[in-house]
Hints:
The structure holds three protein chains of three kinds.
Chain A: H1 23-48, H2 52-76, H3 95-119, H4 123-149, H5 154-158, H6 163-182, H7 189-213, H8 223-226, H9 228-250, H10 255-285, H11 288-297
Helix pairs in contact in A: 1-2, 1-4, 1-6, 1-10, 2-3, 2-6, 3-4, 4-6, 6-7, 6-10, 7-9, 9-10
Chain B: H1 10-13, E1 23-28, H2 37-46, E2 72-80, E3 88-96, H3 104-108, E4 114-116, E5 122-124, H4 135-138, E6 145-146, E7 153-154, H5 160-164, H6 170-174, E8 180-184, H7 185-201, E9 208-210, E10 223-227, H8 247-269
Parallel strand pairs in B: 1-10
Antiparallel strand pairs in B: 1-8, 2-3, 4-5, 6-7, 9-10
Chain C: H1 6-17, E1 23-25, H2 31-35, E2 38-40, H3 47-60, H4 66-72, H5 86-89, E3 96-97, E4 102-103, H6 140-147, H7 177-185, H8 190-197, H9 201-213, E5 223-225, H10 227-230, H11 235-248, E6 259-261, H12 268-273, E7 280-281, E8 285-286, H13 296-303, H14 313-325, H15 349-357, E9 363-367, H16 371-374, H17 378-385, E10 390-395, H18 400-407, H19 409-413, E11 424-429, E12 438-442, E13 446-450, H20 463-478, H21 487-490, E14 498-499, E15 504-505, H22 507-515, E16 572-573, E17 601-604, E18 609-612, E19 690-691, E20 713-718, H23 734-737, E21 744-747, H24 749-755, E22 762-766, E23 771-778, E24 785-787, E25 790-792, E26 794-798, E27 819-820, E28 832-838, H25 845-857
Parallel strand pairs in C: 1-2, 5-6, 9-10, 10-11, 20-26, 21-23
Antiparallel strand pairs in C: 3-4, 7-8, 12-13, 13-16, 14-15, 17-18, 19-27, 20-28, 22-23, 22-28, 24-25
Amino acid sequence: MVPDAQFSSYYGRPVIKEPVWQAPDVAGYLFFGGLAGASSVLAASAHVSGHRDVARVAKLTALGAISLSAAALVHDLGRPARFTNMLRVFKPSSPMSVGSWLLAGYGPVAGAAAVSEVTGILPAAGAAATLGAGLLGPAIATYTAALICDTAVPAWHAGYREMPYVFAGSAASAAGGMGLLATALDAAEPARRLAVLGAGAELVAKRRLIKRLATPGPASLSEPYETGRAGVMLRVAEGLTAGGLAGALLGRRSRALSALSGASLLAASALTRFGIFEAGMASARDPKYTIVPQRQRLPQDGRP
Amino acid sequence: MNPDVSGADPAARAGHVDHPPRMGFFTDTSICIGCKACEVACKEWNAVPEDGISLSGMSYDNTVSLGASTWRHVAFIEQPARPPAEGIRWLMSSDVCKHCTESACLDVCPTGALFRTEFGTVVVQDDVCNGCGYCVPACPFGVIARREEDGQAHKCTLCYDRLGAGLEPACAKACPTQSIQFGPLDELRERARLRVDDLHAAGEDQARLYLDDPADGIGGGGAFFLLLDEPEVYGLPPDPVVTTRDLPSMWRHVAIAAAGLAGAAIALGLGRRR
Amino acid sequence: MAECHPVGFQWVMEAKARGATVIHVDPRFTRTSALADLHVPLRAGSDIVFLGGIVNYVLASEKYFRDYVLNYTNAATLLTEDFADTEDLDGVFSGLDREHRTYDFETWRYQGAEVSAAAGDRDRPGEPGEPGEPDASHGPEHRQVRQAARGEAHGAGGAAAHRDPDRDETLQDPRCVFQVLKRHFARYTPDMVEQACGVPPEVFARVCQLVTDNSGPERTTAVVYSVGWTQHTVGAQYIRTAAILQLLLGNIGRPGGGILALRGHASIQGSTDIPTLFDLLPGYLPTPHVHGNEDLATYVDAESTDKGFWADMGSYMVSLLKAWWGEAATADNDFCYDYLPRLTGSHSTYETVAAQIAGDCPGYFLFGENPAVGSANGRMQRFGLANLDWLVVRDLVMIESATFWQNGPEIETGEMRTEDIGTEVFFLPAAAHTEKNGSFTNTQRMLQWHHEAVEPAGDVRSDLWFAYHLGRRIREKLAASADEMDRPVQDLTWDYPVEGPLAEPSAEAVLAEVNGWDANGKPLSSYTQLKDDGSTACGCWIYCGVRADGVNQAARRKPGSEQSWVAPEWGWAWPANRRILYNRASADPDGKPWSERKALVWWDADEGKWTGHDVADFIADRAPSYRPDADATGVAAISGVDPFILQADGKGWLFAPAGLVDGPLPAHYEPQESPFTNPVYGQQRNPVREIIRHPRNPLQPSGRELGSEVFPYVATTYRLTEHHTAGGMSRMLPYLSELQPEFFCEVSPELAAERGLENGGWATIVTARAAVEARVLVTERIRPIEVQGRRLHQIGLPYHWGANGLSTGDSANDLAHLALDPNVHIQEVKALACDIRPGRRPRGPALRELVRGYARRAGITDDTGTEV
Lengths: 304, 274, 868
């Protein structure tokens, strides 16, 4: 059935409220959190397989990224002084609650791993911390997909099936990219592989998300991802990912190319998060994205 | 204590034992005269701040939407009258928090500031909320918001303090035509069904109830409405579904993606020791 | 009604829920229209044609309630031969003195009525009882009496109507009121309604059908109106047309019927009952005039009637004088009648403003009134304020009338400079109703007591406190004086007890004085107990009984669920707690209700008294069969079939031989300023309308006059729910200001296109008086209408705004002129001709230049618009 091009709204006003989150804080957190989580995974794997240089870079990256994340998250609160209230309750129905507890566990552990690495103190404890951070890392890198999708924001909620894979791939790509950027050529192999895998996954998952969201009619939910500021950011991100992927593959013998690829992948991952963030905001602002898909799934007489 | 014929008992699910009947609003917009006494009474009782003094150009609606500092919002829609009537029609409707049976804002609140009261209503505890803002985009109706002045989320409390004293909410008390009716939810739903039937019999076939059905996407609203046109005409979503319904599936995908990331790392780590 | 009385409107909604049909007649589609079954848009200022059209329909199709009309109205009464109707004189009645702009009522009287000079001239000094000089009825005194317009006094009658007029029971005689009525309204056809009002015939037909189907023995129709009817130069005649209609349909005095005048806000009814009006004493007794009311006996003789309860007017008056001057008022000194100030003409607010500008009025008290915003011709108001010696403003907030010298529009234009304004302004904060005891008397004549909930803070004081202590201090200053001039103040009874730390006078004590007491100090319970021998005192005869048995009846709060549907124990209604006036008319001539369904009061033959759901507005034991002797007077002269007990002939007046200065019958006249000529008669405007002639009150050309096209649109002013009159009680409050934050005008999409206006943009509205700017709301709710083959655009202007408070803006009343209804001196702000242009108005002197430009283009002179 061809959907009606006409729809009603209340003076063109949004139906839902767009998030009050600021892009630098929250989209930034999506990036840094993913970077931290995937870096811990890389660190654990590299630590165990003996790639100590990469492991070092990854552990430090994880600590740095998670620290920035914590600062951004606290800063974004309306009442920052009350950030500890996040630990009043544990609610599986709230990805933010789950995430707060994850961060509460992950942060110290990632910190211990990095500190032990840098100072050399308590290497056994450091190893355990590294493994611990590595275990929590995947959750840290992917739960944020549930966070943004578990809202009424049309572009996010509709994409909940693909978003975790986009985030996982993007996080891996960023972590691997950081490894490529900051590690010597011959030591960076695990990072290179993670980067290639992650970048590939990110490209595929993003494509699938946008394709599945596309519907005929005036309010296709792929539109926010392909138009406006978000569209620009995501297209640039895609290019940077592809370029970084190619560069990673081809740059085994070139430190410069590897570093450039790494930087490219990092930028791409950040742009992807900011792009997805902006796409969500755009879909919240225009009432058609809320009204039309809902109206389309109702039978003619309007009763659900 | 009281049988809940609506089929859902959010207060009991929240852990209240021996709780009073579920209380709510039935807003019959067909008799709203657009006087906005509800808006003023709410602000007076709850000491809600003034929300912006500027002309919107949207008919007589200068309040524009619900928000952290607007908990009752009267919408005005000028439209052509439905045939066979001629001329124009002016729909007026007082919007409010729906106090959903399945409440997204409540589900996503990470601090437990939002909670379910013994009356089945949803209330924010002002001394707990840290302004994370998660509830804001979670609400399918765009009700709750963060107030700039104090950085916290605020919304209609269904006058929880007045309920506790056996009084009706301020807006219901002030409404001169009883467009806003307050009482036990199952009674209100009964009354509303009869009212819709009366309107249909009188030829007003566009009349319908909105959010009265426990089988709908939010489990039915603790505040529901009688509308004279499609919900979106009033700025309401036509088929709202609480986001939490899809959360189990979301967690599954998260788990798979996380496992994939972990698995990739493990595979990378096997072999090729330096 | 939903806009201005939302709480009262719940009862309309209740009626609707019980099956009532609601018809809303208004140029604009308002929140009332949204809930009405039928909205009839019409041209502002054309309602007499609309209502007259329905009257014509009722008469022509014989749908009047014949038994009611025959027995209870003056339909059968014969008029004098000298009467000439608008049909004979192309729009005016006989007796018009064009030079002096007054009517002589002599030719409007009933046949056989005493031939005498008009009321008020009979007792000129030196000529007691004799017909006056040939020019007596036209002299300056006569005109002044006219201007003092006794119209508002109760129980009109006097010499022009008498108790036993000649009648034609067959209603066929061409000189009987019924036939005169038919002839008069014959030209108010559906076609005329379409031409003049812009109401299509099918809509008009539907209204006629609905109204007549719903009237008669089994059903009644109610008419509800407010200032959309009264604020015209023919406003009183609008009400008269409705009264004629309701009398013809038998709706007066019956449940669900009647005419409900919605007063503007709380206790305005009280402010006319115990009046703040120059021409009335409490209980609608007329203020004595310097000519014609020289002493008490002459006054009573001139103003009372032979028959009916108004015949006892002397008792009401004497009791009032005793209330005011107590011991000092004795039979020897006419009960201090001479202490009362006298009228010399119209002392209405607008005359006063002109006097202020002329320097003849040095002082002004404003109690809860904001004329700088709320009164017509705001500029004149402010020029008046600027020319006072002193001004006392008592209000809840700092209103514009108190700050005109600082931020009035004339400061911005440069016409006034603060340092040049000599007015000394005193602002005294006033207590709100929650901070004092007292009563409200609201639109349905019901008194409700309100109790002080909080003490007023700081310097805030109630009006009662102020008036009492001001009087006390003045009396202290005058205590030692031997000057006769000071006796009226010295002799006043001023002994109210005071209470509490603020020495607040007891409102209960004032109520007791209003209620009155007998010679032994015992509270009275009915105005029938009032005497003219000085043994009773009563501050307001219609309120007598409000404190019967010493109990504050107005404070009663028995819930409706615990009493009958009439709810007589909620508050107290005057007179005598009757909830529907003239309710004898709800029963047939035999005393039986016209129908069971509409039973209200009826005659109980066994008990020998009237009984029923309401207190009968009749003599309790007067049998329906009673017919008075030929020489009976006063109350004894009321027959068993005279429901209208305050009229001289006991009947409802289809034709009003006295009481209105501009005609015994309503006739459509165009508003003072109108783009149209009168389609009904050659006479364009109300020939005896009152005009305040003043350089600051220039009037525009109308109809086909040259220059009329400069002001092609019609604006109408009104109120919004969210604000309160001149804004003092709403624009200072954030919760109300945010609901309607700015002054806006309402225009149709067609007008917006024609004049380049945009929704949310700005527009400037211009008349000969002023130009104001407003935001624009483009809406279908105020559609253009077809009048006399032309498209008319109307513009809506809410008038709440001024310079002070959180929500500020220009004042719509600055546009208005001062041409007034001659009966009640009410301004015509419901139909103004104007222009509208896009964009904001100029600032400074350029604003005046804009207005002057319009005046030049319209060719306005001092005489424009002043023709009879």
